[in-house]
Amino acid sequence: MSAQVLTYIIVGATFALYIGIAIWSRAGSTKDFYVAGGGVGPIANGMATAADWMSAASFISMAGIIAFAGYDGSVYLMGWTGGYVLLALMLAPYLRKFGKFTVPDFIGDRYYSKTARSVAVFCALIISFTYVAGQMRGVGVVFSRFLEVEINTGVYIGMVIVLFYAVLGGMKGITYTQVAQYCVLIFAFMVPAIFISIEMTNNPIPMLGMGDTLASNPDVYLLDRLDGLSEELGFSKYTDGSKDMQDIIAITLALMVGTAGLPHVIVRFFTVKKVKDARKSAGFALLFIAILYITAPAVSVFAKLNLMETVDQANYEDMPEWFHNWEELSLIGWTDKNNDGKIQYLGPNKGGGKAFEGNKNAPDFMLGEARGEFGQRLTSNPSDNLNELYVDRDIMVMANPEIAKLPNWVIALVAAGCLAAALSTAAGLLLVISSSVSHDLIKKMIKPDISEKGELIAARLAATVAVVIAGYFGVNPPGFVAAVVALAFGLAAASFFPAIILGIFNKRMNKQGAVAGMIVGIVLMLFYMMKFKFDLFGGGTAEDWWFGISPEGFGSVAMVVNFIVSITVSKFTPEPPQDVQDIVENIRIPSGAGEATGH
Amino acid sequence: MKKTDENAKAYWRENVKYLVILLSIWFLVSYAAGILFKDVLNEIQLGGFKLGFWFAQQGAIYTFVILIFVYVRLMNKLDKKYGYDE
Asked: Is residue A208 situated within a structural domain?
């Protein structure tokens, strides 16, 4: 059977499964809707959290980013896992004991202030919306690549599916669907990785294969070969990297702290029964996430070495079929600068660089069937350095099955895995948006006497509206979405994280301190982001960065400023009322958590 | 009432002590071994891995998982010791 037919069958089967689960586990109360009735076991919750957390970006892009960034890519590996240690040790158990539905609930009650709650709702909505728009786009892109439908059609299909199970099932439906989605996505990620590892190193365990010797030459370690070949072609050593140390530290910290401050991640820990389970489920979540995160760098090195060995000084006409397939999809581009019919893939130390200019350094292909002497697609924007090859980083994962000559069903599986990753994250975020609106805004601020039934209807309506808005941004992506998604972590680090940590660990912290800190933190982060990402306030280049820290890493600085402002302001303002201090005493003790309530 | 207060305080102190120890390890494997002292550690080879690079891309993540499960065990014991188990 062809890959496409198999893809339809496998993707269709997984979608039927998700919808079936949604119908079986539909929500009957607001508690079901917000926190899945508060009765999810730690292992199931760990899986659901993992699926919620790992987006299309983790599944498709991360291994590719690392393949091209080498050591520098470690910031994502450490940053997106280390945050769970903070979450498990410093946030999850206490927030679960506190026992409400949402993050703004905690901020509003702990800081006995509507202002604090509003600031928190505002931050939660900004972070979630920027993030979810990227996911819907991801769904569209996956559909278009694997099923050859229009990107927009893909977005619509994704919308209908998510709408169905997020609106019907709420957190309960989403949680059980995500358990299934985790299984699909991890299986889809591991199968090709294992086959490629065997092919390249004879070692069936990819994370060990990465440090093993080559199958083709048992005297040479794979990583040494990769370092050597990288230098030979004029790139820096794969294991060395090129970013400044302070920037690596800042980005890693911003991603870790941002992870721990993301509302859709935190809310997962409200769904378990006891404080004990919250700790345990953070452990399982990280375990399930780590399986993908320790495999990804292995996939990166296999793919990078495979790519360099395949293309280096080889005749274009001898390229394997996958090379031509991805060229047809515009994700590989070759321009024969010295007219020798061979591919030169060269880094900056050998006169290379970006093969193309403008258009984000991707090739601008000429329209129609314009072909060069060797059958290559012609481009209009070659640069004048010696490098002739452009490879889109996303194909590192998607092309893997083809590169390793795996059967068609594996290709179909990867498509289903991509979709599972994108849909599960989108659904989790939509739930945060809908509960922010129905619970934090309507119930807690606008209409406190709303009935349980009314609130549930409001939640479903809010989810529907959120899906439509997210879909709109998926169809008409504003240019800034990609930039902002990466910065959502900085925003979470600069706003929520200090307010929550201080709320638990500093009994003296009052509303004046927390509100001042959150506002200064988020304004500073937004300012830096607009200045260096969108060229406002005079703009600036990498040389103008403060302390040599990129906008991606600036969340760490804004977080530190938030802490300092909060603590200073709280020293000069009255201490919080006794009943709030009692809340803090109470959340520090694990027993008697009861069930999550909204009242 | 007094007694439960002191019990709670002692529990919290031990909890914070665990946090300090575990978060120090968290810092050591990622920021120290994976970033600050990576070049020194890279002199040591572990199979095909240079040690600093291994910590940054694999070792830190393994340690993170272990840290959380160690914390779960320690806290479960602590809960029992102070009578907060349920």
From this structure: yes
Q: Are residues A128 and A256 in the same domain?
A: yes
- Structural element, H or E, at residue A291: helix A275-311
For Cα atoms A88, A90, A93, give the angle at the middle one, nearest 5 degrees.
Answer: 60
Token output for A588: 């520090």
Domain residue spans of chain B: 2-81
Q: Across the interface, do A286 and B30 touch by the CB < 8 Å criterion? A: no
Query: Cβ contact (<8 Å) for B69 and A283?
Result: yes
Same domain, A411 and A525: yes
Could you list the mean pLDDT of each consecutive 10-residue stretch along chain A, which spans 599 residues? 83 87 76 69 87 83 86 90 92 85 84 86 81 76 73 82 76 84 91 89 89 84 88 86 86 90 83 84 93 93 88 86 82 85 86 79 77 83 86 80 80 86 84 79 76 80 85 72 68 89 90 90 87 76 80 90 94 89 87 56
Residues A447 and A392 in one domain: no
* DSSP 3-state of A333: strand
Please indicate whether, in this complex, the C-beta atoms of A212 and B57 are within 8 angstroms of each other: no
Task: Kindly state the tokens that stand for A443.
Answer: 């119930």
Q: Closest-CA residue in chain B for A73?
A: B57
A100 & A65 share domain: yes
pTM: 0.88
Q: Is A316 found in the same domain as A452?
A: no
Instruction: State which residues form the domain around A341.
Output: 310-397
- Residue A597 resides in a domain: no
List the alpha helices (DSSP H) in A202-232.
206-209, 222-232
Count of the separate structural domains present in chain A:
2
Contact criterion met (CB below 8 Å) for A282 and A269? yes
